[in-house]
Amino acid sequence: MVTCLFVVLVCASQALAQTTEVRLKLADGSYVTVDDAWESPQGVWYRKGGLSHLLAKEKVKKIERNTPAPAAPVVEKSTTDDDHFEVSEAVAQTPSTNGVYDKPAWIYLKGGARVEADSATQSSAGVWYKRGSMSIFLDSSRVDRIELEDAETIAKSGKKERGWSTGRPGLDSLIRQNGNRYGVDPYLIFLVMEQESHFNTHAVSPKGARGLMQLMPGTAARFGVRRPHDAAQNISGGTRYLRELLNRFNNRVDLVLASYNAGEGAVAKFGNRVPPYRETRNYVKKIGYRYKRTTARTKKPAAAPAAKDAGER
Q1: What is the domain range of residue 220?
Q2: I want to staple 262 with a disulfide (CB 3.0 to 4.6 A). Which of 6, 76, 215, 266 is the partner?
């Protein structure tokens, strides 16, 4: 019964997405029609022709979604611009009592990535899911399906590891290989990659950051990354950079994330604290909430400070 209901909800959300016109109203008054758009701490991401692009927030005045009124009030329309974390009042209403997953489940995102949840509740607007002490919302336009974890597997494994996958085995393997090689938790690499590029190898930010973990040209050169859109080179460089930051800040993940977003210089400027930049603080908060350190790591000697490209990406 639940499976049948889920299929109906997915079909309804897909049909709604197909008839929704998404436009970006730019600061100069012009409009750009896109396939989909969402806000993030980095700016406004939009997808067009199968590729994802990023615009600075100041360049986008508004995201407009024009959807024909439904024949009957069966499906709620999502009006949220940010599909992850921040939800409008219309979406934040109590979700439907159907589609409740009160056990550990995998939430599969469109494009192949997936995230593990302690529990989840699905409505036509999207999915609320819990992970630890945090509740997170995913817009229906990003969700492909939800699958409960196998009870027998959970019972046999005892304490479960934090689950994650980009949806691409080769990419998952590169994350694990580099994490093990440089002593960086693969889950931290995964979270940074998701926040930075949504796993898009060809992503380019307005300030020139490139690839999966969005390396600035200076950072890429610093770690010998000649082809930033090559997944293997990019992940290796990004992981080495995380390792260097972990060394420098004695495994303080909040300062590592702040430095990755705003640069070591900005963190040093404010006395080795998270800079008071709204983008950086949101970046640290969102990744930090999801990243829970379960084991104490051996502190290593701090690496010699090296200058990073100035400014946020």
Answers
A1: 167-290
A2: 266
Q: Which two tokens stand for residue 267?
A: 């963190």
- Annotated catalytic residue 196: yes
In a domain, 217, yes or no: yes
CA dist 98 and 135 (Å) reads 18
Q: pTM of the predicted model, to two decimals?
A: 0.50
pLDDT in tens, 13-51: 444 444 567 888 888 777 778 888 888 777 787 777 666
Note whether residue 250 is domain-resident. yes
In the chain, the amino acid numbered 14 is: Q
Residue 148 belongs to a domain: no
CA 164 – CA 172 distance, rounded (Å):
9
Asked if the structure places residue 261 within a domain, the reply is yes
E strand or H helix at 153, and its extent? helix 151-157
Half-sphere exposure of 86 (CA within 13 A, CB side): 9
Number of domains in the chain: 1
- Distance (Å, rounded) from C-alpha 253 to C-alpha 158? 27
Q: One of 196, 244, 264, 312 is an active-site residue; which one?
A: 196
Dihedral over Cα of 133, 139, 143, 148: its sign: positive
> What CATH number corresponds to the domain at position 275?
1.10.530.10
Rg (CA), the chain: 20
Q: What is the pLDDT of residues 275-294, one digit of tens each?
A: 999 999 999 998 888 886 43
Contact 22, 78 (CB under 8 A): no
Q: What is the per-residue pLDDT for 228?
A: 95
3-state secondary structure of 170: helix
The sign one gets for the Cα dihedral 298, 302, 306, 307 is positive
Q: Are 195 and 286 in contact (CB under 8 A)?
A: yes
Please give the backbone phi and psi of residue 37, each rounded to the nearest 5 degrees, phi first: -155, 150
Q: In the prediction, which pLDDT does 49 show? A: 67
Q: Which amino acid is at 7?
A: V
